[in-house]
Amino acid sequence: MKRPGLLDPPRRSTWERLLGAGRSSVDGSSLPAFASSIGLIAGRVASMGLGFLAWLVAARLFAPSEVGLASGAVAAMMFCVQLALIGIGSAVIALYPRHAREPSRLLNSSLVSVAVMGVVMALAFLVLARGAFRELNLVSATPALAAAFVAMTVFGAVNVLLDNVSVAVRRGDQVLTRNVAFGLVTIAIPLALAGLALVQGAWLILMAWTLAGLTACAIGAVQIHRSLPAFRLRAEFQFSLVRGLIRVGLPNWALTMTERGPALLMPVLVTELISPTTNAFWYAAWMMAWVVMIIPISVGQTLFAEAAREPDRTASATRHGLMTSLGLGVLAAAAMALLARIALGLLGSAYADAGVGALRVLVLTVIPFSLTQAYYAICRARGHLREAVAAGTIFGLAAVSAALTAGISEGLTAMAVAWLVVQCAAGAWAALRLRALARGA
Questions:
Q1: Distance in angstroms (rounded) separating the CA atoms of residues 84 and 437
Q2: Nearest CA-CA partner of 50 in 176, 164, 161
Q3: Structure confidence by residue, pLDDT tens digits, 333-385
Q4: What is the pTM of this model?
Q5: Residue 309 structural domain
Q6: Dist. CA 319–CA 42, nearest whole Å
Q7: Measured at the alpha carbon of residue 218, what is the angle toward residues 214 and 222, in degrees to the nearest 5?
Q8: How far apart are the C-alpha atoms of 188 and 141, rounded to whole Å?
Q9: Do residue 319 and residue 281 come from a single domain?
């Protein structure tokens, strides 16, 4: 039997054989669009499920103050990752078809840019934490934790870019593999090393995230070589190419930051302005509420694609999207509200006692959030990005300010109520603008 040589095309995986033909990439290794989408969705679901298990393990092993400090640092890392991307990830999806036959320059330049920006953003945060923060100052004051934070940010940014590359080459199944590996490492390390008396819980959680990011990047390097035989990984940077990537991706990145930035900043600010323990309870409630919010986010992405593809159907697509988002979202919110105490109780009785009211309030935001996500989708499709960024910035700052003010004086449930009130105002604005934008199409 002939053994495969180095130059032979890569063998098809079980996933590829099961999902059949329909490949369209130059190297013939891509999946059908539907199969790739299923893999991408499965990857996101796996990430959320394993992420919940990782924090459940952490909550069971360590004190809430340790979990709160670690979740604040992880949220700060995720915010730095979003800053580091500067739109390059989405631009790679848009520009990859032009570079499919010779992808090395595009992908290497993108990887180098994102990695360098990850270092810059991580160091900027450490400097800020050193001078302005009381709790998260520990991360910048301890060399090992500072190095872990920089590494987490770089690995996180590269992994997000690899997700975009997988989308571009129609290999959404790769996202599933990386996310499963990442989640398993974040669970395994605390379980294996929690008995060490000299290791603090926050340190162990951050070390697990760092090694998980490294593992996912290593798997991604193997995947990209198998999927793209023409690709050669090297330290390559072409300024004109990167400038084009940023020009394509920057406007949508600005809107993405206004959408995601406030939620990522909240754990950092709660840790600093209230306490790490309070942040542990807030982060748990927010993480579970986010499961419901995934519905309007996913529907919004679909609406964006439909409105961009068929502008004359924008009004009907918007109505259908809102009906879907609200219908599924309200059902999911009701289920989460009913199961709130049981779900939080998995983390511990302290989490249930402190966070059940906040969780039941937060899931109600799915109603205004459905409107704002539809509004952002239509703004992306119609090119009204400046308007959407301005609105998102105003409401985002208002939500963070109101929630923190309420939380400092009245507690966790009041913080969730303040967040909900601002989201309702944002939803009302989105509803007014949606009518005009949809009709204008």
A1: 31
A2: 176
A3: 999 999 999 999 999 899 999 999 999 999 999 999 999 999 998 888 788 88
A4: 0.80
A5: 274-441
A6: 27
A7: 165
A8: 27
A9: yes
